[in-house]
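sanity check this record:

:::
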Amino acid sequence: MNFLDLVKARYSVRSYRPQAVEREKVEYLLECARLAPSAVNFQPWRFFVVASDARREALRRCYHREWFAEAPLCIAVCVDESVSWKRKSDGHDHADIDAAIAAEHICLAAAEQGLGSCWVCNFDVPLCREALELPATLRPVVLIPVGYPADAPTQKKRKSPDEVAEWC
């Protein structure tokens, strides 16, 4: 599958089969994330694979959606802002950008492996920190439930190329 076909095939899965995800596939997703580009190659991320029943239950308190609880595992993408790159001209911290790139590598790799995923950013950060027992240096940025889809993709609504791109 070429890259454009992969991007078209990826969708936000909101229903998962109870089937466990093979460890090899999870390791593949993590390797794809590990190899993602980051500002000045600082790689300020940490990935937490939440697969145990106890941790998944604790994580569910952070985001109350039935479909989120269905996923057999969740990958929490966290950043350490003490090691992320800050742009000198304005001090802008690129930690969230780096995390987003790695997260999308996970989602695209999941689609390539026949798995479903979904970006979750609207979660309770303090509860997530507690559920994952994160050290003070780490901040969760995105939760990515991963599993075999039990739903089918719907038509994606996207703006036209003319609405999003300008040739200068």
